[in-house]
Design brief:
By secondary structure, the chain is mainly β. It has one domain: monomeric porin ompg (Porin). 13% of the residues lie in helices and 45% in strands. The chain has 5 helices and 14 strands. Strands 1, 2, 3, 4, 5, 6, 7, 8, 9, 10, 11, 12, 13 and 14 form a 14-stranded antiparallel beta sheet that branches. A hairpin with a 3-residue loop joins strand 7 (211-223) and strand 8 (227-241).
C-alpha cells in the first residue's frame, strides 16, 4: 500500500512536470537563466517583464540567439539552487558501513546503497515570490545482519530491524518533499525557506521510519564567478504512523563549498551531516568530509551535469554507520514550461 502511494505521488508530479513539454523543443530558452546573475540593467529589464528575462538574454546587434544561453549562463543557473531551471536530479550513494554490529559478524564492511530520484521544479507564484518544489524518492538497498542484538543493549533501532533477516532488502524508502519559497533576492546571496515532509512510503520496515514527519527547512548560499558556498538544513518530527516504531527527530544538513574552475566545471564538496536526536550520543551523528567535482556536458541538445564525490566519516554511530561513501550525480537540465515562469497570482 505504501509503495503504491509513493509511486502514485511520483506519477502525479511527473505528469505535472510534463505539462507543456510535449510541444517544446529541447533547446533551452534564455529565460530559464535566473536574471539575478546578469547586470543590474538586465535584472531590472527581467523584473519588468515578469522575470522571464527574454529581452535581457539577447545581445542586440551581436547576432546571439536568445534561445541558446551561453555556457556561463547555464553554469550560473545550475549553481543557484533557486534558479528557474527544471532538473531531473539523480544521485547514487554507496556506503561502506562498520561498527560493533559488523565486528560481531566478523566482517570488514556492510554495504548500503541509496539511489535518489529528485525532480526540481521552479514556479513563479507572484511578481516577487517563487516556489521550488523538490520531491525526493529514495530507492534503498540495505544488508541483512542475521544476528541477535541481545549482546548490545544500547543499539539503534536499525539493529532490531535488520536482525530479522539474513537477506538484503531493496525497495522504496520514505519519500521526502521539501518546498522552498524565495523573495526577489539580490545575488550573489541567495535565501529560501519552507516546510519539509517525510512520508511513510517505505516498501519494507527496514527501509523507512514507519512514521509521517514534518518540519522546517531553510537554505542560504553565496554564488559568484569563482565560489559557491552555503548550506541546506532540514529537521523532521513525527506526528503520525506506526505506534510500535520509535518517534522521529532527525536533522539533515548539507554543507557546500565549491570552486568554479570554469563556467561549466566545479571542484569541491557537498556532503550531508545527519543527526538522530532520539539516539544516545555515541550513535547520534554522521559527519562526512570529502572532495570531488562536477562538469556540465551536452548529451545531444540536452545539457547534463555529471559529478562524483568521495567522503570519509570523521564521526559515525558506534554500532552501525558509514565509514566511506561514494556519491555519483547525474542531472539532466529540462526545458522549463512557459507557465512556470509566469506569476500564478497577480499581486
Amino acid at each position: 500500500m505504501r509503495t503504491t502511494i509513493s509511486l502514485a505521488l511520483c506519477f502525479l508530479l511527473l505528469l505535472t512536470a510534463g505539462r507543456g513539454w510535449a510541444a517544446m523543443d529541447l533547446e533551452l530558452p534564455a529565460s530559464v537563466v535566473d536574471p539575478g546573475f546578469r547586470s543590474q540593467k538586465s535584472r531590472w529589464l527581467a523584473m519588468n517583464e515578469g522575470q522571464s528575462g527574454t529581452e535581457s538574454g539577447m545581445q542586440k546587434g551581436k547576432g546571439k540567439d536568445a534561445s541558446k544561453p551561453s555556457a556561463k549562463e547555464l553554469g550560473d543557473a545550475l549553481a543557484n539552487p533557486l534558479s528557474y531551471l527544471w532538473l531531473m536530479f539523480m544521485q547514487n550513494d554507496t556506503q561502506w558501513n562498520s561498527g560493533d554490529l559488523v565486528d560481531k559478524l566478523g566482517d570488514d564492511y556492510k554495504v548500503t546503497n541509496v539511489t535518489v530520484l529528485q525532480p526540481v521544479m521552479s514556479m513563479q507564484l507572484t511578481n516577487d515570490w517563487k516556489m521550488i518544489l523538490r520531491p525526493v524518492l529514495p530507492i534503498v538497498s540495505v544488508p541483512g545482519h542475521g544476528l541477535s542484538c541481545s549482546g548490545l543493549p544500547d543499539y539503534p533501532e536499525e539493529c532490531s530491524l535488520l536482525e530479522k533477516s539474513r537477506d538484503r532488502e531493496t525497495g522504496i524508502g520514505d519519500m521526502i518533499l521539501w518546498t522552498a519559497f524565495s523573495n526577489a533576492y539580490k545575488p550573489p546571496n541567495i535565501f529560501g525557506f519552507g516546510p519539509t515532509f517525510m512520508l511513510d512510503t517505505a516498501s519494507d520496515d527496514r527501509l523507512g521510519t514507519g512514521k509521517w514527519s514534518v518540519g522546517p527547512m531553510a537554505l542560504a548560499f553565496h554564488v559568484d564567478d569563482k565560489w559557491i558556498y552555503g548550506a541546506v538544513i532540514q529537521q523532521w518530527w513525527s506526528f503520525a504512523g506506526d505506534g510500535d516504531r520509535e518517534e522521529v527527530s532527525l536533522m539533515d544538513l548539507q554543507y557546500v563549498l565549491r570552486y568554479r574552475v570554469s563556467p561549466t566545471t566545479n571542484i569541491g564538496f557537498g556532503p550531508n551531516i545527519r543527526a538522530n536526536w532520539k539516539l544516545p550520543r555515541k550513535n547520534r551523528w554522521s559527519v562526512p568530509i570529502g572532495f570531488g567535482g562536477d562538469v556540465l556536458v551536452k548529451a545531444g541538445p540536452l545539457p547534463v551535469k555529471l559529478g562524483a564525490e568521495l567522503y570519509y566519516y570523521v564521526e559515525k554511530p558506534d554500532d552501525f554507520g558509514p565509514e566511506w561513501q561514494l556519491r555519483i550525480m547525474v542531472s539532466p537540465v529540462l526545458p522549463a514550461p512557459a507557465w512556470s515562469r509566469k506569476p500564478l497570482f497577480d499581486f
